[in-house]
Design goal:
Number of helices: 3
Helix content: 25-40%
Largest sheet: none
Oligomer: single chain
Shape: elongated
Order of helices and strands: HHH
Strand content: under 5%
Structural class: mainly alpha
Length: about 60
């Protein structure tokens, strides 16, 4: 079975292991095995998962 560990995903996305874990949790993705092996396709699924508090209506981005 082919899969990726959280550490391998972190290297692929160039983010921390903790950030990968949080994005996986936020995206609701479950590991393939009990050893936390994930399907390689989740790299693209979590690449753009945004973290943090959602903006309130009418709130502008910083720097605008």
């Amino acid at each position: 079975m082919e899969g990726m560990t959280v550490s391998e995903i972190a290297v692929e996305l160039e983010i921390s292991v903790d950030a990968v874990r949080k994005r996986i949790e936020t995206a609701g993705i479950q590991p393939i095995t009990r050893e936390a092996i994930y399907d390689p396709s989740i790299v693209e699924k979590i690449r753009n998962v945004r973290m943090g508090r959602p903006r309130k209506s009418g709130e502008e981005k910083r720097g605008e």
